[in-house]
Write a structure and sequence with these properties.
It is built from 14 helices and 18 strands. By secondary structure, the chain is an alpha/beta fold. A hairpin with a 2-residue loop joins strand 1 and strand 2. Helix 12 runs parallel beside helix 14. Its EC number is 2.6.1.62.
Length: 455
């Protein structure tokens, strides 16, 4: 085994076969010939990950924003264990079961009143695929089958499957790699109005112009409400979302809200769209996508919800039925886990948890804005971001963070955290301190490089 290809804190007697992993197993966005180093995790508890060499890391990512209750929560584990012993999986075609019914009741109860129909999928990307198909099939049922285009904003991210990536950012996304295989949709500039500032007067002009000229061909607008996640961790004004809902109504197009990353408390509201209200009424989607934290991160599950009107249009289409049905649709084990996670949110004072996390991050990250290589520092709910001036070296910084005892995975020019809601103040300080330490190190390295290049 080539020790140089392993994380430097890896023990010689590791129980994890790193060499097999390196030679045979794909990891997200990695090369099989020049693979990034992988750290071996053997257990997780609360907000901590234990590596194969015994090193313990505070998790700053909630395993890609999903494990909001932390790891090994007894309430979720007990529920899953009970469900595993009775009905772990059964096909959903022609069969139903109580976990799916119970979860759907809960979701209809906590989302906006307009959303009454529930499609239980198995991943966030599929939830988006389902949403796009719903929008297209709806217009078939309304005798407007020419409405086949989707309109969205740049800097968005909606998943890696083909329909989902067709509405991701056209420059930073995957469009250039897959060319004409990706359906070409319509894009306008991303919102520029910051979350805590009034709507810029021109921010919706491009969206309006596109709808004026092409609304007869546009089936729906899809957008991540308030937070553009993997497209840049950008927080935008709730007033933009309010204006967008009005435009969709004016030009007769559906509004799809992708809350996969933002749902279940992450931004400080149960759903991010709740930040945007018209006359006291929250902005309502025609179609809503949920995932990630839906099960507390314990098992994959996603949901696409829609209104009665959308469901009726689909039912009136030539097919007469909605044309989608995954093998693991409505998986009872996943539905039971989601019910347990939602029960925890209902019982726990998660709003106060998020407020405390937000307050602490604002205080502890504030000083990073003074570092020359830092472009911006921003915090919303349980999301903390240090944006650098240039792209960072993910592999190099990953090792630095592990050495500091935290799990933070930067990407592009962003050093960010989305910790579990149950994180302690001391654990959070460890994360924010590590973020500042690494950001300051990048600043120092840039200064040194500049001195050398000009010396």
């Amino acid at each position: 085994m080539n020790k140089t290809n392993l994380p430097k804190n890896h023990a010689q007697t590791s129980s994890i076969d790193f060499e097999f992993d390196k030679q045979h197993i794909w990891h997200p966005y990695t090369s099989m010939t020049q693979a990034l180093p992988a750290f071996g995790v053997v257990s997780a508890q609360g907000c901590e990950l234990t590596l194969d060499d015994g090193k313990v890391l505070v998790d700053g990512t909630s395993s890609w924003w999903a494990c909001v209750h932390g790891y090994s929560h007894p309430a979720i584990l007990d529920t899953m264990q009970q469900q595993l012993g009775t009905l772990s999986h059964v096909m959903f075609g022609g069969i139903t079961h109580q976990p799916a019914i119970e979860l759907s009741k809960k979701l209809v109860g906590i989302t906006s009143p307009k959303l009454t129909k529930v499609f239980l999928a198995d991943s966030g990307s599929i939830a988006v695929e389902v949403a796009l198909k719903m929008a297209l099939q709806y217009w078939q049922g309304r005798s407007q089958s020419q409405k086949q285009r989707i309109l969205t904003v740049k800097c968005g991210y909606h998943g890696d499957t083909f329909a989902a990536m067709s509405v991701c950012d056209p420059e930073g996304g995957m469009h250039t790699m897959f060319g004409d295989s990706v359906t070409q949709h319509e894009f306008v500039s991303a919102p520029q109005s910051r979350f805590d500032e009034p709507l810029l007067s021109h921010d919706l002009d491009e969206m309006r112009a596109k709808l004026i000229s092409q609304h007869s061909e546009i089936a729906a607008v899809i957008i991540e409400p308030i937070l553009q996640g993997a497209g840049g961790m950008r927080f935008y004004s709730p007033e933009y979302l309010i204006g967008l809902r009005k435009l969709c109504d004016e030009f007769n197009v559906l509004l799809i809200l992708d809350e996969i990353a933002t749902g279940f408390g992450r931004t400080g509201k149960l759903f991010a769209y709740e930040h945007a209200a018209i006359d006291g009424q929250c902005v309502e989607a025609d179609i809503l996508c949920l995932g990630k934290a839906l099960t507390g991160g314990y098992i994959s599950l996603a949901v696409t919800m829609c209104s009665d009107e959308v469901a009726q249009g689909i039912s009136d289409s030539p097919a007469g039925v909605f044309m989608h049905g995954p093998t693991f649709m409505g998986n009872p084990l996943a539905c039971a886990a989601a019910c347990a996670s939602l029960d925890l949110l209902a019982q726990d004072d998660w709003q106060d948890q998020i407020k405390q996390i937000e307050r602490q991050m604002k205080i502890e990250l504030k000083g990073a804005i003074d570092y020359p290589e830092v472009k911006d520092v921003r915090v919303l709910g349980a999301i903390g971001v240090i944006e650098m001036n240039s792209t960072v070296n993910t592999a190099e910084l990953q090792q630095e963070f592990v050495d500091l005892g935290v799990w933070i995975r930067p990407f592009s020019n962003l050093i960010y955290i989305m910790p579990p809601f149950v994180i302690t103040s001391a654990e959070l300080t460890k994360l924010t301190s590590a973020m500042k330490h690494v950001a300051k190190g990048i600043t120092a390295s840039s200064k040194e490089a500049g001195f050398i290049s000009h010396g």
